[in-house]
Amino acid sequence: MIITISRQVGTHGAIIGRLVAEKLGLRLFDHELVDEVARRLQVAPGVAVQFDEALLNPVQSVLWEWRSSVNDQLYGRYLRQALNHIAKEGNAVVVGRGANFVLHCPGCLHVRIIAPLALRTAIFRTTHDVDEPTAQRMLREEDEQRQHFVRHYFHADVTDQEHYDLVINLAGLTPVMVGDIIAHAARLRETESLPVLPHATLPHHIEMMARHRKAVSPGMVEPSQKLK
Q1: N or C: lower Cβ tally within 10 Å for the chain?
Q2: Where are the beta strands (DSSP E) in the chain?
Q3: Hey, where are the domains in the chain?
Q4: pTM of the full predicted structure?
Q5: What is the pLDDT of residues 42-58, one digit of tens each?
Q6: What mean pLDDT comes out for the span 96-118?
Q7: C-alpha–C-alpha distance, residues 178 and 112, integer Å
Q8: What number of other Cβ atoms are within 10 A of residue 223's Cβ?
Q9: Which of 23-27, 104-108, 164-168 has the lowest mean pLDDT?
Q10: Handedness of CA 67, 70, 72, 75 (dihedral sign)
Q11: What is the spatial distance between Cα 32 and Cα 95, in angstroms, rounded to a whole number?
Q12: What sign does the dihedral 89-94-99-100 (CA atoms) show?
């Protein structure tokens, strides 16, 4: 079982990831993934963290490459290697880092956690002790950094909901409730063992439609016929 959790800034993604990992007895990779990439690069974690869900400007990139021989292309390559190694071993929750764009397997569940700006601002202010304008500015900046990170390394839009099996709005749910929902969905996903195909669930939809299809009265024209 592999669960990836993409999250907007200020949605308790790390906490929810930990709750899910504890509930299902899985390994958790949040900052631990950055440490793993650093180990593979044979550099200090402080070097790898500079590339974590962010893109350095050209000057910073040159400086870090000069100091540590690490650049964004190298970091991206080893990030993919680390993610594939985690998937091979299985039984893990991976928070962020574009994991859902790398890991594709029957037992994978890809989740995106979102929340209204007002709630995210309140959460961010509590954890960072800043005023509201500063919190909203920092939220926007970090959200943009993560979007640029995913676009650069995986050529994808992190906000596109089609990349996820489950999108959860934190507005009406507690972190514990969200953790329970994800854990339950992961168990169901593992039980079904669906193949990794864009339309893997189509037979289930067809079966459900046939089961609940209403009988057509004599003379009634079905919608599909009206369109012809």
Answers
A1: C
A2: 2-7, 27-29, 92-95, 108-114, 166-169
A3: 2-202
A4: 0.80
A5: 887 777 777 777 766 55
A6: 91
A7: 11
A8: 6
A9: 104-108
A10: negative
A11: 10
A12: positive
* DSSP reduced 3-state for 33: helix
Q: What integer is the mean pLDDT of 16-31? A: 94
Burial 80-114 (b: 16+ CB within 10 A, else e): bebbeebbeeeebbbbbbbbbbbbeeebbbbbbbb
Amino acid at 159: T
Q: In which band, very low, low, confident or very high, does the pLDDT at 121 lie, cut at 50, 70 and 90?
A: very high
CB-based burial of residue 3 (10 Å sphere; 0-12 exposed, 13-18 middle, 19+ buried)? buried
pLDDT tops 50 at residue 126: yes
| Token pair listed for 48 | 């790898």
What's the fold here for domain 2-202?
Answer: Rossmann fold (3.40.50)
Position 183 confidence tier, pLDDT thresholds 50, 70, 90: very high
d(CA 5, CA 103): 12
Interior angle at CA 124, CA 118 and CA 130, nearest 5: 105
User: Which position has the token pair 């050529």?
Assistant: 155
